[in-house]
Amino acid sequence: MGKVLPEYLSNWTTEKVKKEGVKIISEALVKSVNYKDDKLEIQLKDGRLVKTDHIVAAVGLEPNCDLAKSAGLEVDSDFGGFRVNAELQARSNIWVAGDAACFYDIRLGRRRVEHHDHAVVSGRLAGENMTGASKPYWHQSMFWWLWLKTMKPALTGHEADTLESEGKSELLIALVHQHKDGYGKGVIFYLRDKVVVGIILWNVFNRMPIARKIIKDGEEHADLNEVAKLFNIHED
Question: What is the rounded CA–CA span in Å between residue 190 and residue 195?
Fold first, then answer.
């Protein structure tokens, strides 16, 4: 959560999840996993032992770029994956799409994205360009997730950790509104050089086209509270 949400919202969400009975162990590394007495025993590097019935590994991925050397393809040293241009082309007659493509986004710069929507969009674009379309990647893919049936964030563009790794981030939030049960609706803007490059919609539905247009326009905004009004976050 800390990779995509502002710290205050990440902390609030974490506490909300804990209250539902979820035990969260942060900043811990797994040393080993063993099966014993019908249980999985997870040995952490700090010495703690966690016993559980199941393990779901959601650890991201590292693209398999073994083909690069034999095919003469470039691997991006910063983001990993095969380095391609804005048309997803690695070399003449070779295109790469999905998680393995480190592509040049004509609006946001070089990126590598690991989400379903991106895989669909980039796969379609690579296929079109194979047949001579010569189209650049411009569509901002999105992803969303659901917590406790009451929190549904959706994100498009750059997220917080990407900007922090560049050392160029400015963060402005306009605003996730509080009510008696916590944070209700809102929109969060991530900025780079005073331009919106990432947007999170917090419990705001059917507004993703607006978010994509704001990022595509690439304009500086003097008052993001005015921009937030485009999302009608006060409507029921």
Answer: 8
| pTM across the whole model | 0.80
Cα separation, 93 vs 67, whole angstroms:
15
- Long-range CB contacts (within 8 A, 24+) of 41-46: none
Phi/psi region, residue 172 (left: phi>0; alpha: psi -120 to 50; beta: rest), is beta
**Contact between residue 166 and residue 124 where contact means Cβ atoms under 8 Å apart:** no
Q: Is 117 exposed, middle or buried (0-12, 13-18, 19+ CB in 10 A)?
A: middle
Convert the pLDDT of each residue in 39-77 to its tens digit. 999 999 999 999 999 999 887 778 999 989 899 999 999
Q: What number of helices (H) and strands (E) belong to the chain?
A: 6, 15
Domains and CATH numbers, the chain: 7-52 (no CATH), 67-130 (3.50.50.60), 145-231 (3.30.390.30)
Give, for 162, the enclosing helix (H) or strand (E): helix 160-166
pLDDT at 128 over 50: yes
For residue 228, pLDDT beyond 50:
yes
Strand order in the sheet with 49-52: 30-36, 39-44, 49-52
Three-class DSSP category at 15? helix
Closest C-alpha among 118, 80, 126 to residue 102: 80
